[in-house]
Design a protein that fits this description.
Number of helices: 27
Helix content: 40-55%
Structural class: alpha+beta
Bound molecules: arginine, aspartic acid
Number of strands: 22
Length: 679
């Protein structure tokens, strides 16, 4: 260890921290085995034989799923299947409210557009690229004639390049889902919170052609036969048991400097939280007054609230840990070490300068996204604006389609109330000289941001007349309004990177910095930041001290559901069948004894390092058997995307025994369990 003081607090590789590359898990296997893992590295990942990786899929755009039978049965979260379930639902068949259980293969419901991707292989291609092969050439070679897709993704800020080859299945069908009163129990109230009682799972099946290959939907398709599927353990879990998560975490930034931490904690999060608070207050108030509005805005509210709540926990966590101060101390040690190394000596100064230069622009983009893009009409009006700019014929059909896409579940009064406040916030937070010229003129003319918005809403025809003629579109004040931001949008595109530190003017320094860190901090185990590729995290089943003298235990049970149950609170209103089952205590083989009472396990905590995208990930025990489905973190864990604190950070999983209990006792779909390997 070359660095002394700060390194100890910041970099001691704790057993639980890290999201590791599956093809290099050999390097961790000794520690994993010490913690209770019983399998070998090539059981986790192998290029040559079936391994656990073959049982894990990327589900839809941003979740993980896992095979639990030899016939393509797939588990993921209810919140990951939500969009599909909603799409298949109608007023007569409301699967969100009532749940759904296919009684036979014929009743499994194809979800148009839903895909799952299996990783065929991953490979470090840094050397191949250095030797003169092109990325395009490598990817073509890997995908020629086999229908696979390939991508090359940088890790360690471009110091290494990883090739990923996927096989994507396009015929995926809904097999079963509990009602939302189980799958989303606790709603936004309990989101990011422990104790938790959400049965956050849904079941799909992947279909293939007769050769087991991907195919478009067809009645002739047959269940996909995965190379591996997970065995299910109902033996239960104890505090201290080994756990492993295998999935697709999306975005972490563990190696950024203090400037980036300050940006998130002091600039970006406070702005985003403030603006979302305004939007959520307006929506909640309207929802409280009217049932139809509550339903129409349920998904939007949940979406806005999810990150809003996460950012608050993240900012608090970064402050509590003193992440920026620790990073500053670490950087001071680094600078002292680097002083006599010409290639690194000025690195931190260069990075600091780059941040100063980029931050105002990046902030402007984030502000624009949260305020102007937070106006619900924006996308529809912008679609009209673009169409007429390009001289496209915006037929009645096209207008109908766009209205459907952008304005479903839309309420003009809510949109207006939000837009008034969002424009005011945008104007107040932007440097005057950077406001679009036409907006500045409109502000001068109408006197305030609110008045500008009122003028637009008073005079637009977008919500009242349809289809609109070319002339009316061109003259519409709402269409003109979005046109004012065309330049702003163009400029924002220059800063459209996942994180501030990925903007090229900054990222180019990180490449050198990461290299330098590995020399400076040479005993630290560096795992690459999450980037929506397959990773392994491992830890243990464990509670945590939430506050002085207040320990949160690792397991919740059905008794906690009943304690929260309240027919008058939407988030806590459980199905009658669950009440009845509780009363009868007829839990079948899923019963446990908890505190001397007959009960059913529901959710548990563990210390695995997870992030957004890990939802739906298999949670495995030391034998590689499925013990749960990951779906969340505790509120105080959310800074783990920047700093992981092993004493506090916990991921939340639904216990597989609760999943089976719900399928069997509530869904009456026990036949599904018969095709699983339940131990
Ligand atoms: N917080 C979890 C995640 O980030 C679950 C979100 C879904 N649940 C909800 N009530 N919005 O995705
Ligand atoms: N709930 C997140 C997801 O949907 C997981 C997390 O952020 O812990 O991926």
């Amino acid at each position: 260890m070359l660095c002394a003081l700060a390194c100890i607090t910041l970099t001691t590789a704790t057993a639980d921290e890290g999201m590791w590359l599956p093809n290099r898990i050999k390097e961790r296997i000794k520690e994993m085995r010490k913690m209770g893992f019983k399998l070998k590295a090539d059981d986790i990942y192998s290029d040559n034989k079936a391994s656990l990786k073959d049982a894990v899929v990327q589900f839809g755009g941003g979740c993980t799923g896992e095979f639990i039978s030899s016939e393509g049965l797939l588990l993921t979260n209810h919140h990951c299947g939500y969009g599909s379930i909603q799409m298949l639902s109608s007023v007569e068949h409301d699967y969100l409210t009532d749940g759904y259980w296919a009684k036979s293969r014929a009743e499994e419901l194809h979800v148009p557009g839903l895909t799952v991707s299996l990783l065929v292989k991953m490979e470090d291609v840094t050397d191949r690229l250095a030797a003169g092969e092109t990325a395009k050439g490598i990817m073509e070679k890997e995908t020629e004639g086999n229908g696979y897709t390939a991508e090359i993704k940088p890790i360690y800020y471009g110091n290494q390049q990883m090739l990923y080859v996927y096989r994507t299945y396009r015929d995926v069908r809904l097999v079963g889902t509990p009602p939302s009163s189980i799958g989303k129990f606790g709603g936004d109230t309990d989101n990011w919170v422990w104790p938790r009682h959400t049965g956050d799972f849904s079941i799909f099946r992947v279909y293939a052609n007769a050769e087991n290959e991907p195919a478009d939907y067809s009645e002739n398709n047959v269940p996909y036969r995965p190379a591996r599927h997970f065995e299910v353990s109902t033996k239960g879990i104890d505090e201290g048991d080994f756990t492993m998560i295998y999935g697709f975490p999306g975005n972490t930034q563990e190696y950024v400097t203090a400037d980036a931490v300050d940006y998130v904690a002091k600039m970006a999060n406070p702005m985003k939280i403030a603006l979302r608070t305004i939007r959520l207050d307006i929506i909640s108030e309207a929802q409280a007054k009217d049932v139809a509005t509550r339903i129409a805005y349920a998904a939007k509210h949940a979406n806005i609230a999810n990150a809003w709540k996460k950012w608050q926990g993240e900012s608090l966590g970064l402050e509590r840990l003193g992440t920026a101060e620790k990073k500053r101390a670490y950087e001071a040690e680094f600078a002292a070490w680097a002083a006599d190394k010409p290639q690194y000596a000025n690195l931190l100064d260069s990075m600091h300068a780059a941040y100063s230069e980029v931050i105002p622009h990046y902030f402007e983009r984030e502000l624009f996204n949260e305020s102007i893009m937070g106006m619900e009409f924006f996308n529809y009006a912008y679609w009209l604006h673009l169409g007429q700019m390009r001289g496209e014929k915006l037929t009645a059909d096209k207008q109908a389609e766009a209205r459907e896409k952008y304005l479903t579940d839309h309420n003009v009064a809510i949109d207006r109330a939000i837009s008034r406040r969002m424009l005011a916030e945008y104007v107040a937070r932007m440097p005057k000289e950077n406001l679009p010229a036409q907006l500045a003129e409109a502000l001068a003319k109408h006197g305030s941001a609110e008045a500008v918005v009122d003028n637009i809403f008073d005079n637009t025809l977008l919500f009242t007349e349809y289809p609109l003629t070319k002339e009316k579109i061109a003259a519409d004040p709402m269409v003109q309004f979005v046109g004012w931001f065309a330049d702003a949008l163009l400029k924002n595109r220059d800063y459209a990177y996942r994180n501030l530190s990925n903007v090229p003017a900054i990222e180019k320094w990180y490449r050198t910095y990461m290299k330098a860190l590995r020399e400076f901090d040479n005993e630290r185990a560096f795992y690459p930041d999450a980037n929506f590729t397959l990773r392994v995290a491992y830890g243990t089943v464990t509670g945590y001290e939430n506050a002085d003298g207040e320990y949160h235990t690792h397991l919740t049970t059905i008794d906690g559901i009943i304690a929260k149950d309240n027919p008058n609170i939407y988030d806590y209103d459980i199905p009658q069948s669950l009440r009845d089952t509780y009363k009868s205590k007829d839990y079948g083989r899923w019963a446990i004894t908890q505190n001397g009472k007959k009960s059913v396990p529901v959710c548990f905590l563990a210390s695995n390092h997870t992030s957004g995208g890990n939802s739906g990930s298999p949670v495995l025990n030391g034998k590689g058997e499925l013990i749960g489905i990951n779906f969340d973190r505790t509120w105080r864990s959310t800074m783990s995307d920047i700093e992981f604190d092993p004493t506090i950070c916990r991921n939340i999983s639904v216990d597989i025994r609760y999943v089976l209990f719900v399928i069997d006792r509530i869904g009456g779909a026990g036949y599904l369990i018969e095709e699983m390997d339940v131990k």
